[in-house]
Amino acid sequence: MSGEFAGRVALVTGGAGDGIGSATCLRLARDGAAVVVVDEHEGRTKEVSERIASETGATVLGFPGDIADRERMDEVLAATTSQLGPVDILVNNAIATGIIWSKFVRKYADRLQPEMDRTPLRRFGDPEEVAELVAFLVSARSGFITGETLNISGGWYMRP
Q: From its phi and psi, is residue 105 left (phi > 0), alpha (psi between -120 and 50) or beta?
């Protein structure tokens, strides 16, 4: 594969999630990374891994597991290293987000809309917008950014 992340291995925890996780996996795979999807939901992990591999042609592995289960994560890392090589990119979704569109948000959109109406951009965030930020942060283009909390919230944190 070619692209900015060609030859790199990205492991994404919560990678089978309906919103940010799967969007991040897809974004990195589109730019050439081999992607490892780790998520607690076994069925979703398999489905998302297969869909991303099919859509992008990237190598995608899916491992069900809880990131808090050290023994399981050791197994995941060993299998990843043996099949793809060492992990170059680790995404643990530690970004300060506003309310990002997902199945959960869709279910409660009516209740959440008043909150969105009070934010400067007056809308929900898209998972792909967060995935773009993640792609930037794991790229060489962000080489001087470290130890920062970046907000991607449509201005939600700016409100009085």
A: alpha
In a domain, 24, yes or no: yes
What are the pLDDT digits (tens) for 51-86?
999 999 999 999 999 999 999 999 999 999 999 999
CA–CA separation, 49 and 78 (whole Å): 18
Handedness of CA 110, 112, 114, 120 (dihedral sign): negative
Instruction: Flag whether pLDDT at 2 surpasses 90.
Output: no
The answer as to whether 27 is a domain residue is yes
Inter-CA distances, 137 with 112, 150, 154, Å? 29, 10, 18
Q: Which residue has tokens 């948000």? A: 105
Q: CATH number for the domain including 35?
A: 3.40.50.720
Give residue 120's pLDDT.
93
For residue 143, what are the contacts with CB-CB under 8 A and spacing of at least 6? none
